[in-house]
TrEMBL record:
It comes from the Eukaryota. The chain crosses the membrane at residues 467-486, 507-525, 545-562, 574-595, 607-630, 675-698. One of its GO terms (biological process) is defense response to bacterium. This is Ferric-chelate reductase 1 homolog. Residues 20-188 form the Reelin domain. It is found in: Membrane; Secreted. InterPro entries: Cyt_b561/ferric_Rdtase_TM, DOMON_domain, Ferric-chelate_Red/DefProt, Reeler_dom, Reeler_sf. PANTHER family: CELL WALL INTEGRITY AND STRESS RESPONSE COMPONENT 4-LIKE-RELATED, CYTOCHROME B561/FERRIC REDUCTASE TRANSMEMBRANE. Residues 302-423 form the DOMON domain. Residues 1-25 form the signal peptide. PROSITE patterns: CYTOCHROME_B561, DOMON, REELIN. The lineage of its organism: Eukaryota, Metazoa, Spiralia, Lophotrochozoa, Mollusca.
Length: 703
């Protein structure tokens, strides 16, 4: 085994070890460093600050030394619990004892393990967990410890977790009353859903014990916390059962304090008509606190904001967007999608057609949109559009989370949000006027997340654009000019055994061809096939022209590789064909770049379009200038050279307009030609670098 192979094996083993270590960090419970911070070791990820979808519940709010209390970690609205870390801690600021020391002992349950020195005061998961709740017993120490709370860190995903969630205060009867209200110390959580409503327990054959569990499900309620008035009975499976069985057999029996939206009752959505936005912006100060937000802003202004809140079986959405200037009829469309591309998306359309305002459900196909009127009453509730006359358009509606319809996305799962805006023609939606704004990742609408992502080209679209720009603005431009005008220069210099012009031309065009093919493959992978084509709209021809030019590029490269020898009778035919095909390919490709800049998915800044136009004009000017110079050179040479040399020149170069390729001296004004070439390379390098830098520096899809 050689050294190179050994090194590769070592690298593979190192990667495997790192992957194993990362997997343990995800599924094997909290590390010892979490004992004080209550933070999991999840890389650079930080705890969510949005309202928690989890509740920390305890069976009573008073304790005595040595007493056992039940603790439950509950995911509301069927929110999955992947991992946890739980402790009891002192919370009275007047107590001189440490507030970070874990107090008491937890009873070990299947699937969990002790942490922090294995002293039974801290419990965490020992293997991946996939339930909506978990319950265990906590036993107080034999001596009073002051007022306590249960602290928990709960993980939904590796990069999504809430830290230091607290239960109600478990008060010590021997200690002085707290100076502040115990309710103020409890971590708020989202409004419970219909799935959290108490149901009758199913018969269980296992030995069960019924225990009263204290809970206040409305995080904003202020009623007295007494065991008698807020009792919640739970059936507890014996410890011999598995954690998964334990979770599934936990059911609510009675809960007089849980406030849920009844299916037949009218929804009571929040009133967000009074904006808390800063002057001149659409950003809301309460985003992430009592609502989720999707904000479309750039460095200068904001175009829209989508807000949502959890209303039991529904999500309440409130949209504000800047009106399209000059449009009498327009629409805002909010789509829910499983990916970041158009197609198979559930859509809610807010329509303003003159004085007529409406909201309806539709569905995005890959190339169009279909109105789904029959779903309006099934999916929507209390929908309305407002057009107050200012530069904003308002829309609000309640969208049902789960609908038994193939073309209606289940909003209880993570989704991408898309927002599009466009005009109406005779009451019919036209293509959106700007690129749809898409969230950079899937959003869990049950949590009050905040996303500020504006849709920009994907990485593959950026790569496609940059490769094509470098190939045809830089490489092809130099290669074409060298072959057309610079054959007579540097007659005594050779690179790789070939004349300078030929080596540079071949290298530039070969690079251009390879980059074009790579860009062609990338864009086909990005769109998963062929994009929409329309001969009636110029920019929709971009895919067809792109395919045609790619075929021409491949043909050009093959022709260059199999060029006939200089003595072949086919050489003149090759010269004319290769020259003509090169000109057509270059012009068609630059033209396609121009129309490609107008595509919505490209989302390029208008400055880039102007720079491409400037390049096209400049390229024409350079060719015209060089043609004039060479025409003048030919006239002067005719006067200075003998008739025989003139006849030789005319025979060899009449078709190519090149000068004395086989002589050992450079033509007149060669210094001027070299200066023009250097200036040309510098200018197109500057234009190409500027355009590519603008594309690369545009923000990519992010959170």
């Amino acid at each position: 085994m050689d050294k190179e192979t050994q090194r590769n094996i070592h690298v593979v083993l190192l990667v495997v070890l790192l992957v194993i270590q990362r997997s343990q960090c995800r599924s094997g419970g909290a590390p010892p460093t979490s004992c004080q911070t209550l933070l999991p070791s999840h890389g650079q990820n930080t705890p969510r600050t949005t309202t928690s979808p989890y509740a920390v519940l305890v069976s009573q709010n008073l304790y005595k030394p040595g007493e056992t209390i039940q603790v439950m970690l509950r995911g509301l609205c069927q929110t999955i619990l992947k991992g946890f870390l739980v402790q009891a801690r002192r919370i009275d600021p007047r107590d001189p004892r440490s507030k970070q020391d874990p107090i008491g002992k937890f009873t070990l349950v299947p699937g969990a393990r002790y942490e922090c020195g294995n002293n039974e005061s801290t419990l965490t998961h020992s293997s991946p967990y996939n339930g909506t709740s978990i319950r265990f017993n906590w036993t107080a120490p034999d001596t009073p410890q002051g007022h306590l709370q249960i602290f928990a860190t709960i993980v939904l995903k590796f990069d999504t977790f809430w830290s230091k969630l607290t239960s109600v205060v478990i008060q010590d009867s021997t200690a002085q009353p707290l100076s502040s209200s115990p309710n103020d110390l409890r971590t708020p959580f989202i409004q419970p859903c219909e799935s959290d409503r108490p149901t009758s327990p199913a018969p269980v054959t296992t030995t069960l014990a019924t225990t009263s569990l204290f809970v206040v499900a409305d995080a904003n309620s202020t009623h007295n916390q007494t065991e008698q008035t807020t009792a919640l009975s739970l059936t507890t499976v014996a410890e011999s059962s598995t954690m998964q069985q334990w979770t599934t057999m936990t059911s609510f029996v009675t809960a007089t304090q849980i406030k849920l939206t009844n299916k037949t009752a009218a929804l009571q959505p929040p009133d967000w008509s009074k904006s808390t936005a800063s002057e001149g912006t659409l950003e809301e100060a309460k985003c992430g606190q009592d609502r989720g937000c999707f904000i479309g802003c750039n460095s200068k202004s904001c175009d829209f904001i989508v807000m949502w809140s959890n209303l039991g079986d529904y999500f309440w959405f409130y949209i504000k967007a800047r009106r399209l200037p000059g449009a009498n009829g327009q629409y805002i469309a909010l789509a829910f999608s499983s990916d970041q591309t158009m197609g198979s998306d559930s859509v809610v359309d807010c329509i303003q057609d003159g004085d007529q305002l409406s909201v309806h459900v539709s569905y995005n196909t890959r190339y169009g949109n279909t109105v789904m009127t029959h779903l309006n009453k099934v999916m929507l509730n209390q929908a309305s559009v407002k057009n107050p006359g200012d530069d904003l358009l308002y829309c609000q509606f309640a969208r049902k989370k789960i609908v038994e319809e193939n073309k209606a996305h289940d909003l209880s799962t993570d989704v991408y949000l898309m927002l599009a805006q466009g005009s109406l023609l005779a009451g019919v939606k036209q293509e959106h006027s700007r690129v749809p704004v898409v969230s950079g990742r899937r959003l869990d609408l049950r949590t009050y997340d905040v996303s500020r992502q504006l849709q920009t080209p994907s990485i593959l679209i950026k790569a496609h654009a940059c490769l094509m720009l470098f190939a045809w603005l830089f490489c092809a431009s130099i290669g074409t000019v060298m072959a057309r005008f610079y054959k007579p220069l540097w007659p005594k210099t050779k690179i790789c055994g070939r004349k300078v012009w030929y080596t540079v031309h071949r290298l530039c065009m070969l690079i251009a061809g390879i980059l074009t093919i790579i860009a062609f493959v990338l864009i086909f992978y990005e769109v998963q096939g062929l994009s929409e084509i329309s001969i009636l709209r110029l920019k929709k021809l971009h895919p067809v022209v792109g395919i045609a030019t790619t075929c021409l590029v491949i043909l050009q490269v093959l022709m260059g590789l199999f060029r006939p020898s200089s003595t072949s009778v086919n050489r003149p035919v090759f010269n004319y064909g290769h020259w003509l095909l090169g000109i057509v390919t270059h012009v068609a490709t630059v033209f396609n770049i121009v129309i490609g800049c107008g595509l919505q998915k490209a989302a390029v800044h208008f400055t880039i379009v102007y720079l491409v136009y400037a390049f096209a004009i400049y390229q024409i000017v350079v060719i015209v200038v060089l043609e004039i110079i060479f025409c003048n050179i030919r006239v002067n040479v005719k006067k200075q050279q003998s008739y025989s040399i003139y006849e030789m020149r005319n025979t060899i170069y009449s078709s190519t307009k090149d000068l004395l390729e086989d002589v050992n001296s450079e033509p007149p004004r060669s210094s001027l030609l070299k200066f023009i070439l250097g200036t040309h390379i510098l200018l197109i390098a500057s234009i190409t670098t500027t355009v590519i830098a603008m594309i690369v520096l545009m923000p990519s899809n992010a959170v």
